[in-house]
Amino acid sequence: xxxxxxxxxxxxxxxxxxxxxxxxxxxxxxxxxxxxxxxxxxxxxxxxxxxxxxxxxxxxxxxxxxxxxxxxxxxxxxxxxxxxxxxxxxxxxxxxxxxxxxxxxxxxxxxxxxxxxxxxxxxxxxxxxxxxxx
Length: 134
Known about the structure:
By secondary structure, the protein is an alpha+beta fold. The chain has one domain: Roll (CBS-domain). It has eight helices and five strands, in the order H-E-H-E-E-H-H-H-H-H-E-E-H. The protein has helices at 3-6, 20-30, 50-56, 59-62, 65-73, 76-79, 93-103, 124-132; strands at 8-9, 34-38, 44-49, 107-111, 118-123. The strands form two sheets. It has a three-stranded antiparallel sheet with strand order 1-5-4. The protein has a two-stranded antiparallel ribbon with strand order 2-3.
């Protein structure tokens, strides 16, 4: 089974200028856990996960409401500079699962092999559902 068989096509994404606050609002609005960050041409730059963002915006964790407010107004790439590990649609699903485990991530952006543009996202939920559809 290939990534293309399981991925979510045309995922929600954000640009690098998006604030942490706006990213959190989109995560909540769409009830998702991952937002790829792409440039104006659709090239993958990074990925934001709620697991990365929530601790740095929780006043109980940070201990200072003013610091949290400043973080919320920062652009996501100024706060989270994690490089995204991506796969292409022809990647074997088992290999994608191994990458997720090795990289300790819950989702992988899917990029077009020829252009590098974001075309989908594969989450651990997609893999689990795919395993039951066999």
